[in-house]
Amino acid sequence: MECPYCGAEDSRVVHTTRSEGGSIRRRRECKSCGGRFNTFERTELITPMLIKHDGNREEFKRDKLIHAIRMACAKRPVPASEINCLADDIEHTLQQMGCEEVPSRMVGDMVVRGLRDMDTIAYVRYSLIYLQVNNLEGVLSEIDRLMMLNSSN
Ligand SMILES: [Zn+2]
C-alpha cells in the first residue's frame, strides 16, 4: 500500500475496523515518513453452495435464478427490473447469511415470497414447477406449506 505522502511501499497497520457491510478500514502508518493514512478493502462476499433435493451441491448462479423467475413471469406484466431486483435481494440475503451451504429449497422459498407480492400467476407457476411438485398430493402439501410461510411473516 503506497504512502500518499512520500510514495514509500512499506507501511504498518495501526488499527483495523470491520464494518457491517463487510468492508475493512485500516489505519496505516508509513515506515519511511511516519505519515498516517486510511485504506478501505472490500472483503469478498461468499455466496453459499445450494444443497439440492438429491443431496448434490450446486453453485448459486444469479443468471440461472433470473432465467427461472422469467419463465414463471412469461407473458405476465412483470417488469424485468423487478425480476432483477428480486434476484439481487436473494443473492444479497444468501451472502449475508455467511453459511457455506444452504438447501436450494430456501432459495425457492425466497422466490415464492418475492413473486407472491408481484404477480399471483407467476407465483403459482413458480411454486408448482420449480419446487418440483408433480402430483396433486404434492400440490396440496405445497399449498399448506406456503400458507404456513404466509402466516409466519
Ligand atoms: Zn511516507
- The DSSP helix count reads 5
- What is the overall shape? elongated
Chemical compounds bound to the protein: zinc ion
Q: Number of folding domains?
A: 2
| Percentage of β-strand residues | 15-25%
Q: Structural class given helices, strands, pairing? A: alpha+beta
Q: Characterize the largest beta sheet: strand count, sense, and whether it forms a barrel.
A: 3 strands, antiparallel
- For the terminal residues, how far apart are their CA atoms? 47 Å
> Largest sheet, order of strands side by side?
1-2-3
pLDDT averaged over residues: 85
Total number of beta strands: 6
Elements, N to C (H/E): EEEEEHHEHHH
Provide structural commentary.
This protein is an alpha+beta fold and 153 residues long. The chain folds into two domains: 11-42; 49-152, no CATH class. It is built from five helices and six strands; from the N terminus they run βββββααβααα. It has helices at residues 62-72, 80-97, 104-118, 120-130, 136-152, and strands at 11-18, 23-30, 36-42, 49-51, 57-58, 101-103. A hairpin with a 5-residue loop joins β2 and β3. α1 (62-72) packs across α2 (80-97) and α1 crosses α4 (120-130). The mean pLDDT is 85. The site of zinc ion (ZN) has 8 residues, from loops. Zinc ion (ZN) binds next to loops.
Please outline what is shown here.
With 153 residues, the chain is α+β, with helices and mostly antiparallel strands. It has helices at 62-72, 80-97, 104-118, 120-130, 136-152; strands at residues 11-18, 23-30, 36-42, 49-51, 57-58, 101-103. Helix 1 (62-72) crosses helix 2, helix 1 packs across helix 4 and helix 2 packs antiparallel against helix 3.
